[in-house]
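Rotation project, supervised by the postdoc (A.L.). Task for the rotation student: set up a whole-complex structure prediction and record inputs and outputs verbatim in this book. Inputs entered:
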Amino acid sequence: MGPQLKANLCGELRNFETEVIEKRSVVEHWFRDMFAKYKPPFYSSVDLRNACFKISPVDTNLFPAGFNNIGKDDRRTTVQAFMNAIERHCPHAETVLIVPENHTRNLYYHQHIGHLHGLLSNVGLKVTVGSHEDSFCQLKEIFFKNIEGQTISIPVLRVSRHDGSLYVDGKKPDLILLNNDFSSGIPAEYRELNSDQKLAPCLESSWAIRKKSRHFKLYSETAKEFAGLFDADDWLISPVNRRCTNVSFKEKKGEECLVRNVTEVLNEIKKKYAEYKIQRNPFVVIKANSGTYGMSVMTIRQPNEIYNLNNKQRKRMSKNKEGVTVEDILIQEGVHSFETVIDYNVQSVAEPVVYLVDNHVVGGFYRIHAKKGLDENLNTPGMQFFPIAFEDSCQLPASSADPDSITNRLYFYGVIARLATLSAAKEVRE
Amino acid sequence: MGPQLKANLCGELRNFETEVIEKRSVVEHWFRDMFAKYKPPFYSSVDLRNACFKISPVDTNLFPAGFNNIGKDDRRTTVQAFMNAIERHCPHAETVLIVPENHTRNLYYHQHIGHLHGLLSNVGLKVTVGSHEDSFCQLKEIFFKNIEGQTISIPVLRVSRHDGSLYVDGKKPDLILLNNDFSSGIPAEYRELNSDQKLAPCLESSWAIRKKSRHFKLYSETAKEFAGLFDADDWLISPVNRRCTNVSFKEKKGEECLVRNVTEVLNEIKKKYAEYKIQRNPFVVIKANSGTYGMSVMTIRQPNEIYNLNNKQRKRMSKNKEGVTVEDILIQEGVHSFETVIDYNVQSVAEPVVYLVDNHVVGGFYRIHAKKGLDENLNTPGMQFFPIAFEDSCQLPASSADPDSITNRLYFYGVIARLATLSAAKEVRE
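Outputs recorded:
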């Protein structure tokens, strides 16, 4: 017997889900309208946390990695959705250059790039992989296992710029597909390209520019509007957020702001927990206002923990991906993860990750961690992945079946993920 | 062991296919451009004939039946493609009314309507089935087996018109999805609807208006342009066509026109067979210039057969679906079907039918007939259906594999079907 998933919803959230499933035509109609107004990102992934009484996105990534974790049965739908993305962003493209992160030794990431290469080739594009980074170019090629289990190598080409256009191997690709979030700043090469060469996602999607506080502000407005369609409380799907700038964990700067906001957020949560009679200990997550990969993220259960951080914790919170100094902090309501996966008698905390291409939910998987608690970040070393069976779900909810059917649950996950991606679409547009 | 398919390509056509597969990026780019210019039909199905040395569409249906034959593994892609069709044709739709053919006793057709209902429900639409025909409304409900094997009933509602809008059950559906080709004329109810109610496909798609001669003229132009991308001979994928009007088989009117054109078409075929050293007997198919369902279709091997038709043959050619008198005739190069399916030691002639929704190939099946020859119409009583394994094909050709791989063959079938659907898009637009 394979791993077993326990993903429950309860109380008001379960009623909300039931409404959403019953009124699917309202949901889909609303999303069609919204995505007609706000161009969906080329691709995205959304990390969710399901606390049974509440579900929330906690990270919306516009440079998703992990396409190697998309199940075999989801590949055809994914290819079809990439066709839509190309149609929407760059219909005249014949050639595409994938620009990956500078992960020279992360073989899982190479695996992802290989699968992304394969998916786009199946769309009918000529695909190359190239980088502006010396260290990545020195790899010369990356290796990955395709779905048939064969090991394939893809050359890594050097990206160069001439007269306002990017070239690899003397050729000028029609589309530059960024899988690099340029956390430490957007390299000059990629700025202000000639208009006959298209960049996707646009540079405004980079973590050098995006702020989580802005994303979650737009998400809370989006969630409010959506919940309003069903007279539901948007708190059920939306976390409380605050922001502190000019923080230095190393120099103990800005601690008062953090403590004040942590206190406020905890009080808001307590009020909501009282309203819904939730017998849980509230917690807050503080994280760098830009960046991903689960770096610079910390769980806070009491405000005064802020004053008592040890050196290791301070150091960890000070630097983000690529050594970027963290000064801007998001204080976010913590959402427990009560989803667990039981595999070989080991119970692990699970976090669903939903993948979108264009406005289509194409698949997903669970990030699981056997050594983390229900209120801890799972995006850390030791995490494992476990595919979500999206193939018979998502676009095919068993509408007549009971609300706890796994198919309906995954449809609801897809709805929450689309709300997050829609918020990212608004964010990048503005 | 299940049924085995033999689907070969040979000679120049095989070289053409190899080119198409190698230059997929050119193919897909061209189709993206074309379908941006010509709005793809909401849905369509294309009957193909594969003679090994030549492959051609022989019928392009804009009111496809047979969605019940779409394989389970193709359903998710089909739902996603319907989402695109709705986005393109009627983004604001929440409710859709399916208007079926007036087939009161054809349980296969009811099965199809049931599956179409299910697919559109999964898109997130509120779906009803209704008719303006008394006999169909008297059914009150139709029954079908869903993919889980449960028998489901769907009510059949009466369509009525008030003040320029159609209503069922007192409600006004946003989208009227026609699955009735209105062969015998477009009912007044459906004409000039208020603009807030959308009809798909448009009334110009009806067999009361469409002419096969026009479709195949546009197809031959489309095929010429496409073959030109590869310096290939478009005859390899396009049949020779002629037309005779004012024909009456019953009154032996217009026979000279038929004989002259049959002779000319046979001569053109002979020239081509000589050029490609094809050792086959050429034949011609004469068919009503409008209409479908394989009615009023006949194989002619010698021009003077026209003069010697017996009464039964004359009667069969005189009347089309719904008793429409046939006076307009298409004389089309016959394409042998050298595809066969062997099942339990019985070898049957097979004709692939490819299904499209929007511009996406979503699936297909083989129409097989154990009692028909290689040069005969298979769309007759006694035919059977056998699903094509599109799930691992079509959008996922095994690009590195050999040209005879079934995956590549089906991709090529999808290309030919898209050429036919693109021609229908041009036809309806003009």
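Student's summary: The interface with chain B takes residues 24-29, 32-33, 36, 73, 75-77, 79-81, 83-84, 86-87, 91-95, 121-126, 360, 391-392, 394-397, 399 of chain A (CB under 8 Å).
Supervisor addendum: Residues 406-429 of chain A form the longest helix (24 residues).
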